[in-house]
Amino acid sequence: MAKVLILDRSKSMRNTLRERLEYEGFSTETAENEAVASKMCEKIPFDLILSETGQKLPDVGIPFIVLAAAGSIDSAVEAVRNGASDYLTKPIDMNRLLQSIHKAIDSPEESANTPTTPSRRRKSATFHTEPIIGTSSQIEHVRQLIDKIAPCEARVLITGENGTGKELVARWLHAKSHRTTAPFVEVNCAAIPSELIESELFGHERGAFTSAIKQRKGKFEQADGGTLFMDEIGDMSLAAQAKVLRALQEHKICRVGSDKDIDVDVRVIAATNKNLREEIDRGNFREDLYHRIGVVVVRVPALRDHAEDIPLLIEHFVRQISEEYGSTAKNFDDEAMTALKQRRWTGNIRELRNVVERLIILSEERITLDDVKKYVLS
Length: 378
Fold this sequence. Notes:
It is built from 15 helices and 14 strands. By secondary structure, it is of the alpha/beta class. Helix 3 links the parallel strand 4 and strand 5. Helix 9 (238-250) crosses helix 11 (287-293).
């Protein structure tokens, strides 16, 4: 695992970069100034430094990438002359940054400006999914669970309110598992009519029903060798639940209209916003299926339970949305940020992102408390 040192005066920038890089498979440390960074380099064999300055740390011999607050041709040229592998300006394009990091660490012939020892060249795993943003104890607990659960084959039940990020947790469980190169297939059990759910999950043969004009593979077959994410499993009919239970017990499925069993190797991760214990008591969910899918339960906290992460989430969404729109990132006044932290987010992180996008569209260069009152709280 490659080790990256993040040198930046901004605590929020250090935290954001650290979270993203650690979920891209890197080991990270942070420093707020060059003096601290130099001392850390004496003790830790870093593979790369991300630095907001264009100067190479003295006598450390470690490749570095400059992340400048504002860029110019002269400062970029000076940084490269000083040995920088690349020069990026804030707000950081994470895709480009990751490419630069891999180029600096994995391809010594492409970063010849800075001498490094062969022991520093280590391949890093790359997972193509969004980071889990937050430094709260609740979010850190979710990360720790992912790291423990992902490498095993246990089935997982993810619980939490709508908009909390259950799908993101499922994606990371797949990305950090041994199945990461195999398919990750999603099915929203609440979005499919009950009469079609069996065909969607298990497939069907031609002529199985009126509209079955050709054979079709279901989600279980599509996910063979990989992960099947069954979202909103609490909304599935009892008939479909019985067939899912059989598939999990016997690792076999049968297409609608067929009497032939098909072997499948699938890890099932399920999610629900319902209390399945209560659904069992009401007769809406099978208790035996609950025990099959809930070998490990991961609860994703509501946003109100980790409101201290809202500023980091807003920073992340501002960069993401600005990149999508091809516009300059806007800043939030402290009063506006405080008001958003105090808001009760019934739609959780999904609602927060929508609000940030609305404010970016409707506000001027800087987002103020008046903008929040006008476009969010009104």
